[in-house]
Amino acid sequence: MPFESPSRSSGPSAAQRRIEAMAAAARRRRRLQVALPWLIIIGTFLLWELVCRVFDIPPFILPAPSAIAQSMVKWWVPLLENSWQTLMTTLIGFALAIVFGLLLGVAIGSSTLLYHGLYPLLIAFNSVPKVAVVPILVIWFGIGTIPAVITAFLISFFPIVVNVATGIATVEPELRDVLRALGARPSDIIRKVGLPRAMPYFFASLKIAITVAFVGSIIAETVAANKGIGHLMMLASSRFDVPLVFAGLIVTGVMGVLMYVVAVAIENRTTGWAMRGQDSGQVSVAGV
Amino acid sequence: MERPFVEIDDVSMRYGGAEGTLALRGTSMRIAKGEFVAVVGPSGCGKSTLMRLVTGLWPCSAGSVIVAGKEVDGPLSMAGMAFQAPTMLPWRTILQNVMLPLEVVEPHRRRLRAERAMYEEKARRLLALVGLKGFEDKTPHQLSGGMQQRASLCRALIHDPELLMLDEPFGALDVFTREDLWVELQGVCNILKPTVILVTHDLKEAVFLADRVLIMSARPGRIIAERRVPFERPRSLEITYTQPFQQLVHDLREHISAARRGEEPPLAAPAVQEAPHAV
């Protein structure tokens, strides 16, 4: 009876207590995990405020969070209007990037010929700094929303193409054989296997693409625009209103995080099958 | 006499141009309709190449492959295949995975929408036949490797293929699961009666399942011997312990050893040469 002796000496309730203690520890961990991002953000702002006050840093070098908050309250109408403009610009560019990124990714991923033919050009294109492209766009389309939309599109399109192409190109050769021996057309293989298989890659790329899309639209707005957060920040800095510049930065960061969260939510809903590792871990903890 | 279902005549296969590796050299074989043939041979002898040639996935460099009286010049569009890896699609349930061929093969492809219930019933019956009743709506990762392999067999059989190609389908499984699946595969084949080509390096498996065992030489591969398996069907696992069965396995083992010696010098004596399935 080697298995019974420990439980007999400490009693069955001791074992129960141990399991409950473990469950409580797991619950505490989970709560910490949820709270941690907020704690870190608040902590950063507190530290920032403290540094500004202790070293008496002038607001036009580094404004304290309190000064930024004041500026936000004071200028909330233009901040809201311009961030709405930037959000719309970014989302239109991002939507274009999704459409063209998917199309080109599928094409490149399913054809070795296209892959080898187009990849060098794509890489060259992605290496060009987008700031350098904006003046050209302004010459073509004039100052305004269109250059910003196109810049957001150009910058966020590459990660989508590369990821979708990878997902489609890495279909297992055995699976391809199974389907080909059944008389499947190449379009069947892409539809039944390639595309669903590429979805986790696609959503992973969306998380990157949405954040860089903000970079693209704001770059364009700082160079040539009459609306948008980028434009607002340029105006503010030309007036040495540094707290407002920082307010613009923070608003941009918040928008980026929000869009990222949306992308993650869509990813979890649609491609949960690819995340079984994390899922099963959570299930077992919740089951205790 | 009826014309053989599969006729392979003097087929050669070379990879990578004129200077490339010769994988198959002058291979010929005839397989009757409904026959179960196992192809065994030392590793790298071109067994898998042979399968891809027969199904038309690859064109052969020389010779001809005729299936059902028609020269093979492209993918067959009706062969069921199963490999060592189950290759289930993780985003589909087991039932949906098994029904995948029906979405591709004619004429099922056209009928599937209208007669979904009938096809689904068929898939469920097939799954029940290999002991997967109750797992139809699970996803592949909820199943063990052996269960996924069972589902993979069902996927290869769902469209009643006339030709079933099995490339070491049980290679990655433990001995007990493997033997269970032999019996199940035999049962399914008894009902559906497809023509089967099984590529394996497990001699016991070949003898247990096949009507005829073909032995291939080391690369470049060709058929060097064949053995008819005389045992009555259905065969039970008990038969693997009988003297005639083991004699046949031993006999095949000798051929394989000879085939290997023909190509490479013996490095050291195998530790358990007499064990029939120690391949």
From TrEMBL, chain A:
Transmembrane segments: 32-51, 84-106, 118-143, 149-171, 201-224, 244-266
Recorded superkingdom: Bacteria
Subcellular location: Cell membrane
Main location: membrane
Membrane topology: Multi-pass membrane protein
Record-linked SUPFAM superfamilies: MetI-like (SSF161098)
Signal peptide range: none
Domain (ABC transmembrane type-1) ranges: 83-263
Alphabetized Pfam families for the sequence: BPD_transp_1
Keywords assigned: Cell membrane, Membrane, Transmembrane, Transmembrane helix, Transport
Family: Belongs to the binding-protein-dependent transport system permease family.
Protein name: ABC transporter permease
Lineage: Bacteria, Pseudomonadati, Pseudomonadota, Alphaproteobacteria, Acetobacterales
